[in-house]
Specification:
The protein is an alpha+beta fold. It is 27% helix and 34% strand. The protein has three domains: 111 residues, conserved putative lor/sdh protein from methanococcus maripaludis s2 fold (Beta Barrel); 103 residues, Elongation Factor Tu (Ef-tu), domain 3, CATH 2.40.30; 125 residues, RNA polymerase II/Efflux pump adaptor protein, barrel-sandwich hybrid domain (OB fold (Dihydrolipoamide Acetyltransferase, E2P), Beta Barrel), CATH 2.40.50.100. Strands 2, 4, 7, 9, 10, 11, 12 and 13 form an eight-stranded antiparallel sheet that branches. α2 runs antiparallel to α3. The longest helix is centred in the first third of the chain and has 29 residues.
């Protein structure tokens, strides 16, 4: 047998042997890979409950009392012994007005009074002796009474040339200084503020007022002297370590703004609150019955819409548009979009896609979160939900 014949026989035998592994490899590549298991997600089941809530509003600090300092007499300011921005005592001298004119008027009135007094004293005995007419005596007495009134007014004007503090408090910037001429009460000289205690004024919206009035419990809290807790957050984010009490509720709405003024009273011995300062006011003590609330981190935001992922039939995920209300502790009260019994995805939302299956498990810290509501307060409409995946 020739070498060529042997080679052909070996080639025919090897081809089937080499083709078999290649065919098997091709079959393995064509088989689809096994589907990954559904992602595990932590869910809470929404249930209605009484949820404590509070509200945040912008407030403005106002002095407990503000007195405008004015001069009752006209003249040139000769002295201003106080230091602007300091505390003054009641009765302390603030301004001295040139006393020349008022002192001269007082001396003239005093002389007239003394002369009228002597005239009456001289005529009274003569009247008893019928040595003078009754009309003369009456005229003298009228003159005396007029002189007496003029003297009292002149004395007051003389004393008013020294302008004193009507109350004790923090004196403001002087608006007229030494050398300036005061034309009378029309000219404001300065102001004095009482800074302990102070007021914090705030104005709820008309919609908020309507909601409160429709709720008997809330309606009782927006009355003067109620148990409403009023706290203040300063511009640096720190909270004032004391609460205030509701001191005043305006009897009517402001026609220009459609809002109603509320005012709380705060102690201010440390002068943390300054008139004109804007603060965040938190009103606590309200409660919403049969509210639906979810953990804040379950609320997503994308393209200007707020939504949550819920687990529906067949354990498939779906995105649900919601209207969130105020915060309550670590939860968010949902006004619309959810119903009792909905299973809301709290953790693992980044792993889901609408319409795809998931493996829901109960959120481990759900009970702790729910218990925290009893001691938590509620913010007003929260500024923004956290960003989530687009739908």
């Amino acid at each position: 047998m020739s070498h060529a014949t042997v080679f052909r026989m070996l080639t025919r035998a090897a081809v089937p042997l080499l083709a078999a592994p290649l065919a098997l490899a091709a079959c393995k590549k064509e088989a689809p890979p096994p589907a990954p298991p559904p992602p595990e997600v932590a869910v809470v089941t929404v249930a209605p409950a009484s949820v404590p809530e509070s509200y945040e509003l912008t407030g403005e600090v106002q002095p407990y009392r503000r007195v405008e300092v004015r001069s009752r007499v006209d003249g040139v300011i000769m002295a201003r012994p106080f230091t602007e921005g300091t505390t003054v005592r009641q009765g302390e001298v603030l301004y001295r007005i040139d006393p020349v004119r008022t002192a001269a008027a007082y001396r003239s009135a005093l002389a007239r009074y003394q002369n009228a007094q002597r005239t009456v004293a001289r005529l009274n005995p003569l009247l008893k002796q019928n040595a003078v007419a009754q009309q003369d005596v009456d005229n003298a007495r009228t003159e005396f009474e007029g002189a007496q009134g003029d003297l009292a007014e002149a004395k007051k004007n003389r004393d008013d040339a020294t302008v004193r503090a009507e109350i004790g408090g923090r004196v403001g910037r002087t608006l007229l200084d030494v050398g300036a001429r005061v034309t009378g009460p029309a000219d404001l000289l300065t102001t004095i503020d009482v800074l302990d205690p102070v007021y914090v004024s705030f104005r709820p919206s008309a919609q908020q007022l309507l909601q409160w009035r429709q709720n008997p419990n809330a309606r009782s809290l927006i009355q003067r002297g109620s148990a409403l807790k009023v706290s203040v957050t300063l511009a640096d984010g720190s909270e004032l370590p004391r609460t205030g009490t509701l001191d005043f509720v305006a009897p009517s709405l402001d026609a220009s703004t459609g809002t109603q003024e509320f005012r709380a009273l705060f102690k201010n011995a440390d002068r943390s609150l300054v008139p004109g300062q804007f603060v965040r006011v938190r009103l606590a003590g309200f409660a919403r019955d049969s509210a639906l609330a979810v953990p804040q981190r379950s609320v997503q935001q994308a393209l200007g819409r707020q939504f949550v992922y819920v687990v529906g039939k067949g354990d498939t995920a779906a995105a649900r548009d919601i209207t969130p209300g105020p915060w309550s502790g670590d939860r968010w009260i949902i006004d619309t979009g959810l119903v009792a019994g909905d299973r809301v995805i709290v953790d693992g939302a980044q792993k889901v896609a609408p319409g795809k299956p998931v493996r829901p498990v109960a959120l481990v810290d759900s009970l702790a979160s729910r218990d925290s509501l009893s001691s938590a307060s509620v913010g007003a409409k929260a500024p923004a939900a956290r960003s989530g995946a687009t739908r």
